[in-house]
Design a protein that fits this description.
By secondary structure, this protein is an all-beta fold. The protein has one helix at 311-316, and strands spanning 28-30, 37-40, 46-49, 61-64, 71-75, 80-81, 104-107, 114-119, 130-136, 145-154, 158-166, 173-179, 184-191, 194-195, 200-203, 222-224, 230-234, 241-247, 252-259, 272-279, 285-292, 300-305, 319-322, 330-332, 338-340, 348-352, 364-370, 395-396, 406-409, 416-421, 426-432, 438-445, 447-451, 458-466, 471-478. It contains one helix and 35 strands. β13 (184-191) and β14 form a beta hairpin.
């Protein structure tokens, strides 16, 4: 009997929402200096931009229209620039705000014109805590304007870590941060009613607080996997990588796995530390950027395979990729690649071409993208992690020649989808919507036929794990 979505209902996350024609809110990025930016096209090509209004040092965020990918506004965490590249703000949102690690923008659920900007204080030093501000895109003849600012989210000392995660219901959003001087993660729920200022607190992992006058545990990225099931936190001063399970229905973290990285950055350019982090599109690979002092000359990008969920196997899977300069922010892009910001005023971004492939098969290029006169700095585009609408580059981990061991027909599909395994053994098939939410997963041998007539029209992502550990990923389209 052909499996149906109903038969796999235990793996469905509620009623399937109607997919938008596109989830393109992260299709335009502005960052760094000299107009640097990127635009991701529907065919997965990348256009380098030189018209950016932003003067971005560290935390940056740019939001585009979800349906068209058209640029709406951007922020360097201090100021906000509108659709026309003009200032929305006359005074900074945050004191020294362009030196906070992460700032993020989310669209208010249920609204087509209200967006929230979430900011932190600088290294737990200013007393500003976490705050949120609103942009209304109907103001100023559609160029956008500030609806309100400086609404207090959490007044206690906080780190510079902020990330957004899609709720399990597919509509609401979690804003996740971390207190300074404690081990408390703070998850704030954003709904159509607004922002809930009473957080869900998970006391887990190490205390983010440093000895002496240093506050460098406040620095370092906090990121979620696109499906919202995993969270990673790195810190600059005490460079352990902490990996968690995230329950995106309740906002809680659990199941800590610590990946040790020796060293200690003292804020003076000495020693080593961690700054940027990103999951691959499937969430099975983790990438982290490791700093070293200039004299050490051995900065690197680290890769961990998380698919086993076994701490010893994850640690053993560690791969290193040398970088010419210290790696800063890491960001999963709509084209399925991961981009790496280099040292201030760098003319190139690093590019992980196949992030779900292990070791050298991921094809990391340290000078992978030339910015054509623009310069990057520390930050890229800290928008909510999701898989882009242009789909993923099909890649078979462990098989650099991308051998066609699996066929998926028809594509586009209507009612049925057939998967044929052109090799021996078992495999596991998983299907995701464009936000990265898992819709179904099932083991199979040789062939698998699915009745997928209940799916809404749109683009879906698949991930196939073979019995030998290799993985294949790509996209399918339901068009009728």
């Amino acid at each position: 009997m052909m499996p149906t979505l109903a038969h796999l209902c235990c793996l469905l996350l509620g009623v399937l929402p109607m997919l938008c024609a596109g989830q393109q809110q992260a299709h335009t990025w502005y960052f760094g200096n000299d107009g640097a930016g990127l635009h991701f096209e529907e065919d997965c090509s990348v256009t380098v931009l030189a018209d950016g209004p932003i003067n971005g040092f560290e935390g940056c965020a740019t939001v585009s229209d979800a349906l068209t990918g058209e640029y709406l506004f951007c922020t360097n965490s201090a100021h906000v620039w509108d659709r026309n590249g003009q200032f929305m703000t006359t005074s900074p949102l945050v004191t020294n705000g362009n030196t906070i690690t992460q700032v993020t923008i989310v669209q208010k659920p249920g609204s087509d014109h209200i967006y929230y900007i979430f900011t932190s204080e600088v290294q737990a030093s200013s007393g500003q805590g976490y705050r949120f501000h609103a942009v209304d895109m109907t103001l100023n003849d559609g160029a956008g304007g500030i609806a309100f600012r400086d609404s207090m989210l959490h007044p206690n000392p906080v780190t510079e870590k902020l990330t957004a995660i899609r709720h399990a219901n597919g509509t609401d959003i979690w804003i996740l941060g971390h207190e300074y001087g404690s081990n408390a993660y703070l998850a704030f729920l954003v709904t159509s009613a607004g922002v809930t200022t009473a957080p869900v607190v998970s006391s887990i992992g190490k205390v983010h607080s440093d000895l002496g006058s240093s506050a460098y545990d406040a620095v370092g990225e906090l990121k979620a996997s696109p499906d919202g099931s995993k969270v990673v936190a790195v810190t600059l001063h005490n460079p352990d990588i902490e990996l968690f399970t995230f329950n995106n229905a309740t906002g809680t973290l659990s199941d800590l796995i610590t990946l040790p990285e020796n060293g200690a950055y003292n804020g003076l350019g000495n020693g080593s530390g961690l700054y940027g982090a990103s999951f691959s599109a499937s969430g099975n690979m983790l990438y982290v950027g490791q700093w070293f002092s200039a004299s050490a000359n051995n900065a690197r990008l680290l890769q961990y395979d998380l698919s086993s969920n076994d701490p010893s196997e994850i640690i053993a899977s560690r791969s290193e990729f040398p970088t010419a300069g210290n790696p800063y922010s890491l960001k999963l892009a709509p084209d399925g690649r991961i981009y790496v910001a280099h040292a201030a005023m760098s003319t190139h971004l690093g590019v992980v071409h196949y992030p779900d492939s292990a070791g050298q098969a991921c094809q990391y290029a340290d000078d992978g993208l030339y910015l054509q006169g623009g310069h990057s700095s520390w930050g890229l585009n800290n928008m909510m992690e999701q898989v882009g609408t242009c789909g993923l580059h099909t890649s078979l981990a462990g098989s650099p020649d991308d051998s066609p061991v699996v066929s998926i027909l028809p594509n586009p599909f209507a009612e049925q989808l057939s998967i044929t395994l052109n090799t021996t053994g078992y495999a596991r098939f998983a299907l995701f919507d464009m936000s990265g939410r898992a819709l179904l997963t099932t083991p199979f041998q040789s062939t698998l036929s699915l009745d997928v007539g209940a799916l809404a029209l749109g683009v879906y992502l698949y991930h196939i794990t073979l019995g030998d550990g290799r993985t294949l990923q790509g996209k399918v389209l339901k068009n009728r």
